[in-house]
Amino acid sequence: MRTSLTIALAAAGLAAIPLQTALAADKTFEVSANALALDIQSELRFDSATLGQGTLINFENDLNLDSSKTTYRYEGRLRLGRNHVLEGSYMDLSRSGTGTLARSLQFGDQTYNIATTVDSKLDINFYRFAYSYYFINQANLELGAAIGVQVPDIDASLVDTNTNISEAYSGTVPIPTVGLRANVSVLPNLSLRGSADLFSVSVGDFDGSLMDVSVKAEYRILDTLGIGVGYNKFDIDGSLQNTSEDFATNLNYDGASVFLNLRF
Fold this sequence. Notes:
Blueprint lengths: L1 H15 L3 H4 L5 E18 L10 E2 L9 E13 L3 E9 L2 E6 L4 E3 L2 E3 L4 E21 L3 E20 L5 E7 L2 E13 L2 E14 L2 E15 L4 E16 L6 E17 L1
Antiparallel strand pairs: 1-2, 1-3, 1-15, 3-4, 4-8, 5-8, 6-7, 8-9, 9-10, 9-11, 11-12, 12-13, 13-14, 14-15
């Protein structure tokens, strides 16, 4: 009887704690450091005005880049009142490798023949900025819509280790996105956060699409400190024709993360 009473009193005490504390809507600024273990597939085609359409190169299969990588993403959120939030993030997904070609590849103005040993680099930096408006804002639930831009900055190079013949591609394409945001408090110190950013367009010589979906669970150790785990899936496809620098790219990754979140 005493045990049952103790449990009932404890449950009542937990229920009395405002769920708003899990969402931390009273904090103005958040910064997060995320460690991600990702599986990656990356393809790039770089055409030539002289040689014509290039080869769609799979950097993992053709050039021996690692298909998995542990990396870090840094995020910031600035809350302007209860309904308005500015977001930004940065992640480096750069890799390099050396491989012997199982097929001939044309990359830009250079052709790399079968059995050639090639040093390759694929440097990708991701920048993301967004504005979110939360049209539902309750103590235990926030729902909102977002508009933003994702900016992949891509630098790729191939070098024939025998002849030192090289070719490089560099491109930065800001991609506008629309999205949804959801924050749910499930316990006084435990919350779930989900986001989805999307883009799809076919205009003239450009075709492109983007999907970026993330879910996170966070436990607040202190009022200003939280830890958590998450999952992120990302896919981008794009191609541009009839220019001096025609290209096509397909990059996708997914994986789990652990993170540390500070609020002020």
